[in-house]
Amino acid sequence: MAAAVLLAGMTAGSVWAEAAAVRVSGYFSDHMVLQRGEGTSVWGKAAPGEKVKVAFAGQSLEATADAKGDWKATFAKLAVSTVGRDLVISAAVPSIEQSNNPNNPTIFRDVLVGDVWIASGQSNAEMTFGMLGNVVNQKEEIARAKDYPNVRSIKVERRSSAWPIDFALKTSGWRAADAATLPKITAMGYFFARDVNAKTGIPIGIVDDNWSGQYIQEFLSPAAAEASPLGKDMKAWRIKVAEWHEAYAAYMRGERETLGDDFWPSIEDPLESRIHNGMIRPIRHLNPAGVLWYQGCANEGDGLGYEALLDTLIADWRGMWGKDLPFYFVQLASYTAPTTDPKGGNGFAAVREAQRRTVAKTPRTGLAVAIDIGNAGDIHPKNKQDVGTRLARWARRDVYGEKDLVVSGPLYKSMKVEDGKIRISFDHVGSGLMAAEKGPDTPGVAPTPCELGDDKLKGFAIAGADKRWYWANAEIDGQDVVVSAEEVSVPVAVRYAFRANPMGDCNLYNKEGLPASPFRTDDW
Fold first, then answer.
1. How far apart are CA 215 and CA 122, in angstroms?
2. 345 with 498: CB under 8 angstroms?
3. Does the pLDDT value for residue 366 go beyond 80?
């Protein structure tokens, strides 16, 4: 926000930009990307009843602050623009004091119009180019960032709140990609934005709104959290906090006998909604193009229950923003030491299955499979380029119109038992299936097809009604995979790569070079 006209002492990290009595959300700054199309708003605070003028791209808007001082002005349709222009906000009828104030109006410079995507989740979403060794080919990527000046990003600073925040928002201010700014930009979001921008020419803005190590429940609104399985705990906690506030007020008045000896330790935060209250709700007037979600490590213990949590998050955010937002997930990468048990099910296996199931049933969602680019000893794999470009494939087809683009590797569709074997069918076969291998730290490099005679598929397990699992023979047969084992004469279920770290045994791809997702056909 360095070039914006602000009150003395205000900075890019300030909670809001201010022009006299008219305040603008901290979301707005120089170098921002406004969402194209209809429904894009500018919002802030002013004195109740005060009129605010907003001017941009030939449109002049006027808004009136309500009884709480909130104002919002919404543009008619905005067209894509790669030309930086000024966004001007001012009091409609300046007072004498305001008229003499050189900081009125507030002017934000170099504003583009394109698509704004929210990149959210935990540490793998937050991971930047900032620390040496964070990202594969880091120095080269930083050097070439200048080639993508219409890729922009803004970091929402961490704020945890027990109660919903209506307005105050602290941010980094918007940054255009270059060698100086890239170390502070989410790598996942940048590679997604770079790929989309390179293919479409549309400016892409990334709202970097995440917090390392946090549960998905933190990102739910209070209403959604209260409807979740922990809703009763949430309501009880809110009652307790209300009691605490009342008792604290009494304490400050000197009525100390109202506090029991065990009152203070009895207040426990159920770890829900705090990030939503402090970091998501304040941008509820945003009109995003879609969501990129990389989270799940913290919810490992929820296993398949993560599916219901994802369902809740999608419905909650789509409801808040009032539209059927595209939601694209990164499936958790391989992690921890490999195991040899064909049953599997350890580590992130169940969360990955929950992510796959969510995409299989939910319209306008997509899955970037990452089991082939993980790291056994690092929960933060460094190949974020393949992650970003795999996410971008979904957007390029479903949002930007590349209708024939193959967006995913094979995703399990159905199974059929035939002659002592199980035939597995897939969606997203593309131009065909293949056994292949890929180095995890080789971004942008296609997997290498296995040599003839060494093209057996790995990582498949099979079981009969006794629920005993055996490593299976798996062969590609046209568009399907046929699975069998000598130990199982009457098979009933198959699992593929259903382990914490299946790397080396997850070699099913389509010929477009995209890996198959792990899956299970059973519900044991």
1. 8
2. yes
3. yes
What are the pLDDT digits (tens) for 205-247?
999 999 999 999 999 998 888 777 655 555 565 565 566 556 6
Name the helix (H) or strand (E) containing 389. Answer: helix 384-398
The pLDDT, as a whole number, for residue 451 is 81
pLDDT at res. 479: 96
The secondary structure element, H or E, covering residue 74 is strand 70-74
Q: Are 128 and 142 in contact (CB under 8 A)?
A: no
pLDDT at 39: 95
Please, are residues 369 and 516 in contact by the beta-carbon 8 Å criterion? yes
Q: Are 16 and 1 in contact (CB under 8 A)?
A: no
Instruction: Give the strands of the sheet with 519-520, arranged side by side.
Output: 469-471, 460-463, 493-496, 519-520
Q: d(Cα 212, Cα 388) in Å, to the nearest integer?
A: 18
> What pTM did the predictor assign?
0.89
DSSP string, 224-269: HHHHSTTHHHHHHHHHHHHHHHHHHHHHHTT-GGGS-TTTGGG---
CA–CA separation, 274 and 271 (whole Å): 7
Using DSSP's 3-state secondary structure scheme, residue 395 falls into: helix
* pLDDT 10s digits, 99-158: 555 557 999 999 999 999 999 999 999 999 987 678 999 999 999 999 999 999 999 999
Rg (CA), the chain: 26
The answer to whether 53 touches 20, Cβ cutoff 8 Å, is no
**Could you tell me where the DSSP H helices lie in 128-221?**
138-144, 187-200
Closest by CA to 299, choosing from 271, 277, 341, is: 271
369, 510 Cβ separation under 8 angstroms: no
Question: Phi, psi (5° rounding) for residue 194?
Answer: -60, -40
On whether the CB atoms of residues 438 and 373 are closer than 8 A, the answer is yes
Task: Name the residue with tokens 């104030």.
Answer: 101
Q: How far apart are CA 365 and CA 329, in angstroms?
A: 8
CA separation, residue 392 to residues 49, 92, 138, 190, 361 (Å): 44, 42, 20, 11, 20
Give the DSSP letter string of 325-348: --EEEEPPPP-S-----TT---TT
